[in-house]
Automatic annotation (TrEMBL), chain A:
GO terms for molecular function: dioxygenase activity. It comes from the Bacteria. This is Aromatic ring-hydroxylating dioxygenase subunit alpha. InterPro entries: Rieske_2Fe-2S, Rieske_2Fe-2S_sf, Ring_hydroxy_dOase_asu_C_dom, Rng_hydr_dOase-A. Coiled coil: none annotated. SUPFAM superfamilies: Bet v1-like, ISP domain. Belongs to the bacterial ring-hydroxylating dioxygenase alpha subunit family. CDD domains: RHO_alpha_C_AntDO-like (cd08879). Transmembrane segments: none annotated.
TrEMBL record, chain B:
It comes from Achromobacter seleniivolatilans. This is Aromatic-ring-hydroxylating dioxygenase subunit beta. Gene3D superfamilies: 3.10.450.50. Its EC number is 1.14.-.-. Signal peptide: none annotated. The lineage of its organism: Bacteria, Pseudomonadati, Pseudomonadota, Betaproteobacteria, Burkholderiales. PANTHER family: BLR3401 PROTEIN. One of its GO terms (molecular function) is dioxygenase activity. Belongs to the bacterial ring-hydroxylating dioxygenase beta subunit family. Keywords: Dioxygenase, Oxidoreductase. The keyword Transmembrane helix does not apply. InterPro entries: NTF2-like_dom_sf, Rng_hydr_dOase-bsu.
Amino acid sequence: MSYTEEQLAAMVRGDSVHRGVYTDPAIFDLEMQRIYGRAWVYVGHESQVPKTGDYHTTRVGDQDVLMVRAADGNVHVLYNRCPHKGAKLVADGEGCVGKFFRCPYHAWTFKLDGSHLGVPLKQGLEGTSYDPADPSFSMRRLARVDAYRGFVFASQSKEGPALVDFLGGVRSSIDNLCDRSPVGEVEVAGGIFRVMQRSNWKVFYENLHDTMHARVTHESSYAAARDEAKEMGEMPLELHIMDGNGEPYEFWEKLELRAYDNGHGYMEGIFNPGAAERDPVSRAHFDTLTTAYGEERAREILGMNRHNTVIYGSGSPHTVFQQFRVIRPIAVDRTLIEIQTFRCKGAPDGVFKRAMMYANVINSPSSNVMPDDIELYNRCQEGNATRGGEWVSMHRYHGSDRSDADGMVSVNGTSELPMRNQFRAWKTYMEAGATAAGAATGDSTCC
Amino acid sequence: MLLDLDFDVSTTGLSPADVPADTYHRIAQFLYREACLLDERRYDDWQSLWTSDGMYWMPRVVGQQSPFDHISLFWEDRMLRDVRIRRLEHPRNWSQQPPTRSVRLVGGVQVEGVDAGGNLVVHSVFQMTEWRKRQPRQLAGRYTHKLAAEGDSWRIRMKRVDLVNCDDAHDVFEVFV
């Protein structure tokens, strides 16, 4: 079905949302136009395309795109399509095209910024309306591309806020991730996990700041870690990071949840690996940062004990363990998670090894923690497909959210403020899309 | 523990192994029994097949050389295998309700040689059918076992599982492969 602006608005109440936002394929199609067709979406990190001609393919919403490094050092984001017959120019994955793109179908060629370079036997096109200067004979760029400290974002819309303004308060999470390097730079390293989930993309975003689920959903894993630690008589970091989910409700109630415009936010850390002045990896890291920035600043950087951050439409960076779970919607009931791990350039090697350990234990498809989340997302998807009720509740501490200078803050760490905030953004995108139909995608004449 | 960088994962540069037919037969039986214990979820019996320092490894990319500078689908020591087993047996393991059922077919057993630590390196191929919540899944690939002699049998010092589609986007892996 198609939706009017009024119908879309009616699906989001202050304290609940209609189940159709998770289950209706028509809503998903609209989201691809009005959210993923407009917002800044994380494409990849500049370090994934280090040399001229290097490309990395991924998705922005329902669009196959690629990120490519040009000879002048700039990174471009292009739709993966040849303007001749439409063939994808490069296969999924990554590689290097050399000095230019060459279509494997009829050898049309394009510069690394996507602009038209040439076609074989050009005389056959003489006297036609073929025009190398006409953008419709070039690979199309996404309307806007920008990077924040090496993190490349693209927007399919010419309109909208600048990237830094879009990111707003969650810029500090990217800053903190980068500042953990003594030279202020990170790089994607050590491989990427990809996990496919049978659930709507929004469920994952909501779960990231859902402190009420941890004790319940993850009981089997924190209980297993605790039993193992008890038997061993010690709790190494591998078990400690599983144990955190088992904190009592009073612990979660004290945490701070921050919510910003555009659906973003973050939550405080649930455990503090930096507390380890006794831990040799943290101590070596602290020494390196002290040399680079001075002791006070080093303490400030490592002391920012932030757990999950939400960059709505892009995913969730985790600064302390240098991860970025990139969330890619595939279908109304299917979501792909790409888990990137970062190396802090110039930091001791143990810092990177620890980040990989975290990825292996927490974010791998074989994690002992994640399967129970995924199971519950899937049960939400299945349950919301029934006629057992029309509304999904976001009532916890509704009406008590406090505003501050640059966003909102929860009165209690178990508040459902983050979900309400995400749907506030959702509603803004979806309604604005209805009034400015066509502004978002497709008809752009950029390039 | 996971950061024990001295653990030798290499399976090249082996010295030849002199394996009589009877020994080869017992090695194959050992691998079939290991697969059977996993299929039957007899995890304590399975753990007892391992050396105390044994590592279970499933690489993320084709030809992965090391579990230390690259992520792996699994990289588990005894402690983490214990944790997985405890979780699989916990009454509130929501994602194991119903439990994963599996059956493994192991074949093509080949004794490759002996590594620097004196472990017998054995290759085999496997096919595994999994089923859970109306979702069947086929996994296939190559096992590499490093076996440490113990009496007239062996213990597993390393099990490497190379999936044919290791670099794919995956559903979760809850049980050992």
